Amino acid sequence: MYFTLLITVFLTAVVLVVAAYAIAKLIGPRSYNKVKGEPFECGIPTRGSSWIPVSVGYYLFAILFLMFDVETVFLYPWAVVVKEFGVLAIVSIGFFLLVLVFGLAYAWRKGALEWK
User: Fold this and answer.
1) CA distances (Å), 48 to each of 33, 39, 43, 45, 88, in order?
2) How far is C-alpha 74 from the geometric centre of its chain's CA atoms?
3) What is the mean pLDDT of the chain?
4) Higher per-residue confidence, 115 vs 95
5) I need a surface site. Which of 1, 36, 91, 101 has the fewest CB within 10 A?
6) How many percent of the chain have pLDDT more than 90?
7) How far is CA 4 from the centre of its chain?
8) pTM above 0.85?
9) Could you tell me where the DSSP H helices lie in 37-116?
10) Tell me: the pLDDT tens digits for 11-31?
11) Tens digit of pLDDT for each residue in 58-78?
C-alpha cells in the first residue's frame, strides 16, 4: 500500500515538473540577444570579476540564523502537543533550549556575532 503511494507521489511530481517545463518552453518569450545574457545586479552592469572572496562571517551568521530558525520550527509543534505529554515534554524542551542557549553563548563568546 505504501509502495503504491510512494510511486504515485513520485510519478505525480515528475509529471508536474515536466509539464511546467514544457509549458514554460512553449509559451515563454524567445528573444535572445547579447545584453540579456550578461550578468547584472539591480540593473547595474558588473565591473570586474564576479568571483570575489566573501568573509567567513557571512557564512557563520547564516549558519547561526538557520540554527535558531530550526529551533523555532521545532518549538511550534511541541507547543501544540505539550499538554498531552505533560512533564516529560517540559523536561525535553528545556534540555533542547539549554543546548541552544549554550550554543549561542559559545558563539557570542567566540565573537561570531560581531561584524568586523
Assistant:
1) 22, 12, 16, 10, 58
2) 15
3) 84
4) 95
5) 1
6) 26
7) 30
8) no
9) 56-85, 87-109
10) 999 999 999 999 999 998 777
11) 888 888 888 888 888 888 888
What does the block give as the cell for 89? 515534554
Cβ partners under 8 Å of residue 113, min gap 6: 61, 64, 107
Residue type, 30: R
Tell how far CA 83 is from the center of its chain.
30
Q: Grid coordinates in use for 104?
A: 549561542
**Which triple of cell numbers denotes residue 41?**
545586479
**pLDDT of res. 41:** 65
Q: Give the end-to-end CA distance of the chain in Å, rounded to a whole number.
A: 57
CA 94 to chain centre: 25
- Distance (Å, whole) CA 66 – CA 77: 18
- The torsion angles phi and psi of 43, rounded to 5 degrees, stand at 80, 0
Of 52, 50, 31, 54, nearest in space to 39 by CA = 50
